[in-house]
Amino acid sequence: MEFDINHLLETIPDINQAFLQTIYMIAISLAVAVLIGLPLGILLFVTDKGLFWENRLVKIILGFVVNMVRSVPFLILLVALIPLTNYLVNTTIGPTAASVSLSVAAIPFFARIVETAFREIDKGVIEAAIAAGATPWMIIKDVLLLEAKSGIISGVTLTLISLIGFSAMAGVVGGGGIGDLAIRFGYYRYDDTIMIATVVILIILVQVIQIFGDTIAKAVDKR
């Protein structure tokens, strides 16, 4: 592989645009994932056996839907969601269109992480809150979310990193971003400089997010 620094300097505007598109995609998708995935994760936990909103039917249905979406490879999900994407954003290409599939993939992923974070809470804390007369909403707000906030922040970090990988794959179908740049220039045109640059950018981005997320998670961890 050959790396040409002069060629890299010439393509900086393209790389900058692709980077901003990637940030745009993952920002929208993460926001949707947290907005929908957090309450979904709460429902998956509190409807389980022995908890205050125990409901076997709801638990089975939600669990099935979450597992079904998670079991579909992302590239297949991209194609399967083309009609929905076209309906919602009036196009099937570009970063906004890719954000639809990214959001759908991220919601169940984050929901399961939230559920797992709640399962790590000492059951005695929840039982004590119930014994003290706390309402379900108070338990969710003042016990579950408070006790699991470190795990939830770690989950946000993990979801964000996964979205970066998914967004790179979205470039295969014209989703824009770093992945699209790597496919169009690095792969189709055998441009080693672009390929190396995009890989390095993704590695640095993931490392920065991981370090930042771990730092915040440790700062809010009460243990």
From TrEMBL:
User: Where would I find the ABC transmembrane type-1 domain in this sequence?
Assistant: 19-213
CDD domains hit by this protein: TM_PBP2
Q: Could you confirm whether the keyword Signal appears in this record?
A: no
Q: What are its GO biological-process terms?
A: D-methionine transmembrane transport
**How does the UniProt record describe the way this protein sits in the membrane?**
Multi-pass membrane protein
Domain of life of the source? Bacteria
Residues spanning the signal sequence: none
Entry keyword Membrane: yes
The record's Pfam families line, in alphabetical order, gives:
BPD_transp_1 (PF00528)
Cited PROSITE patterns: ABC_TM1 (PS50928)
Q: Where in the cell is it found?
A: Cell membrane
Q: Where are the transmembrane segments?
A: 23-45, 57-82, 88-111, 152-173, 194-213
The entry's keywords: Cell membrane, Membrane, Transmembrane, Transmembrane helix, Transport
Q: Which cellular components does GO assign to this protein?
A: plasma membrane
**Family, similarity comment:** Belongs to the binding-protein-dependent transport system permease family. CysTW subfamily.
**What is the designated name of this protein?**
ABC transporter permease
